[in-house]
Amino acid sequence: MIVRKWLENQCNGKYWKDYLHTYGYSKIALYGAGELGRYLAMELRSSEIKVIVYVDRNAHELKEVYHIPVVTLEEFIRTFGHEVDALIVTAVSADREVLHEMVCRLPELPVMSLRDMIFEM
């Protein structure tokens, strides 16, 4: 359903770079280095929006994806939390849990769910 809506948005000229630019985001972090996170990073690769880091539970196995570092949530909070404009949660199965935790731990950082954003575009 999410991928279908994503493709529908693209067919209608709605792209992530434009959506994120509207909110003034230029450096983002992605929670989830799985399929959706990778698709989003690929789409943004040729834009002015830069994916600075992935946050993933399997960071110790992945290390990096597309030359982008993959870190744990704790590492992100310590090292990258203040270097990005926003965190997009692409791990749909964990988005509510992660949104809640990030709001509590980094309240000044905008944290958004890819699932919600894709239907808002």
Structural account:
There is one protein chain. By secondary structure, the protein is of the alpha/beta class. The protein has one domain (2-120): 3-Layer(aba) Sandwich (Rossmann fold). Helices cover 47% and strands 20% of the residues. The chain has 7 helices and 6 strands. It has helices spanning 2-11, 16-22, 35-44, 59-62, 73-80, 95-105, 114-120, and strands at residues 27-31, 50-55, 64-65, 68-71, 86-89, 111-113.
Q: Could you give a short description of this structure?
A:
The chain has 7 helices and 6 strands. The protein has helices spanning 2-11, 16-22, 35-44, 59-62, 73-80, 95-105, 114-120, and strands at residues 27-31, 50-55, 64-65, 68-71, 86-89, 111-113.
SSE string: HHEHEHEEHEHEH
Could you give a short account of the major beta sheet?
6 strands, mixed
Which spans of ≥5 residues are poorly predicted at pLDDT below 50? none
Distance between the termini: 15 Å
Number of spatially distinct domains: 1
What class, by secondary structure content? Answer: alpha/beta
In CATH terms, the superfamily is: NAD(P)-binding Rossmann-like Domain
Shape: globular
- CATH architect. name: 3-Layer(aba) Sandwich
Q: Look at the structure and give the CATH class.
A: Alpha Beta
Query: Average pLDDT across residues?
Result: 91
